[in-house]
Amino acid sequence: MNSEDELNPSLTKTDLAYRALDDWFSRSSPSYQVHWTPREVIFRGAVQHDGAGSPEDLASMISQHGVDLVSEDVDGRRFVTARLNLAPPHRHRYFLHLGLFLLTFLMTVSCGSTAIGTPWEISRAGLLAFREWRSGQPGAACNAFLELLTSGLCFSVPFLTILTVHEFGHYFAARWHRMSTTLPFFIPIPVGIGTMGAMIALRSPLVHRRAVFDVGIAGPLAGFLVALPIFYYGIELSTVESLARHTGLLLEEGKSLLYVGLVWLLKGPIPSDHALFLHPIAWAGWFGLFITALNLVPVGQLDGGHIAYAMFGPGHAKLARVVFLFILFLIPVWGSYIVFAALLYFLVRLVHPPAIDETVGLNPWRYTLGWAMFAIFILTFVPIPLSVR
What is the pLDDT of residues 326-339, one digit of tens each? Predict the structure, then answer.
């Protein structure tokens, strides 16, 4: 930044910072990129070791202008990324996040009390229990309500733990790469299991493929590491019972390769006239693993799409289209896949958008971890998630 710029009253602090960044990168990087977003301007380039000044000099020169500077060594080259804020810093809406979480907790306890249902059954049981308690003679109605409440808590607490760990995996990975992001938004619904999951919203673009990989894989990896022991413990609590003891329709969960292996390990072979009846904790682990598998589908901006793009670059588009066709073929098998396919095509999109800098690839340990996550996807994917018999 030169003295003439500093003395020009028509230039704002943002203008001065932009000129300083542009001047420094033009002298220090043979080719650099400038990426504009509504919230920030991002400068990025590989810096020559004999350039005009170090990143530390740049940091001291623009520290008062709201610029976030990151210097990193990648494959023997030094890259500098500078983010110039155009908007006020993001402020978390803590009460909104907390309110959505508490409402999701209430819905998952209510719906999870009957495995998959609505809040009305436990609400009706609670009303009957309250009337019985008011009468001074608590009995069967109170016991029934407490049983439903216990089942709901046994489902909700471990399941929301899996969701929370998953989303904060994304959150902390994004913050590690100095990206602006929201806290998790939980999505409550009064049917099914009480929620449609949770999400964070990135407010900064992904700079390079390593950042895409780290943010994409952190969530499902963290969630899987929590869901697996929960499911294991839940299967231990589950019981093998004769089908003759149960009349009416029975909800049957889909059996992934991981499910089959764990049940065989813990329960042994199950006779054809018997079935495993899942404990609520097992249901929590099952849904946690199922959601992990859905997120690992290598399409668009799903977690699996982030991983596939980071590993294969533009070549991920062919894989995404093949996987999408496979999901379409599954629709006659389980009709709800039509909703999933519509979300992928219209909302998530099939092809992952490019990162700002596509020249930075993955190192060997990230490739190894990526292949491991695709193995987890194969082990946890369920072609027919739920059925009634």
Answer: 999 999 999 999 99
Q: Which residues, 6+ apart, have CB-to-CB distance to 286 below 8 Å?
A: 231, 234, 253, 259, 278
Give the pLDDT mean for 54-78: 76
Q: How do 386-388 and 77-85 pair as beta strands?
A: unpaired
Residue type, 98: L
Identify the residue whose tokens are 């508490």. 102
Q: pLDDT, tens digit, for every residue of 286-319?
A: 999 999 999 999 999 999 999 999 999 999 999 9
Residue 249 is which amino acid? L
CATH code at position 50: 3.90.1070
As a whole number of angstroms, the distance between CA 270 and CA 258 comes to 16
Domain count, the chain: 2
Which domain range does residue 63 map to? Answer: 3-85
pLDDT of residue 344: 94
Which regions of the chain does DSSP assign to beta strands (E)? Answer: 32-36, 40-47, 67-74, 77-85, 185-188, 195-199, 239-242, 251-253, 274-277, 386-388
CA distance linking residue 196 with residue 159, whole number of Å:
12
d(CA 303, CA 203): 17
**Does 130 fall in a domain?**
no
Residue 276 falls inside a structural domain: yes
> What is the number of alpha carbons within 13 Å of residue 109 lying toward its C-beta?
15
Question: Which amino acid, 283?
Answer: W
Give residue 61's pLDDT band: very low, low, confident or very high (50, 70, 90).
low
> Is there a single domain that holds both residue 218 and residue 69?
no
Rounded-to-integer distance, Cα 303 and Cα 198, Å? 13
3-state helix, strand, coil in the chain (%, to 5): 55, 15, 30
Indicate the pLDDT class of residue 10, thresholds 50, 70 and 90.
Answer: low
Cα–Cα dist 129/142, whole Å: 4
Partners of 36 in beta bridges: 41
Residue 351 has pLDDT above 60, yes or no: yes
Same-domain status, 39 and 176: no
Percentage, residues of the chain above pLDDT 70:
93
Site of tokens 């960044």: 21
Mean pLDDT of all residues in 38-42: 89
What residues does 81 pair with on adjacent strands? Answer: 44, 70
pLDDT of residue 7: 46
Residues 207 and 63 occupy one common structural domain: no
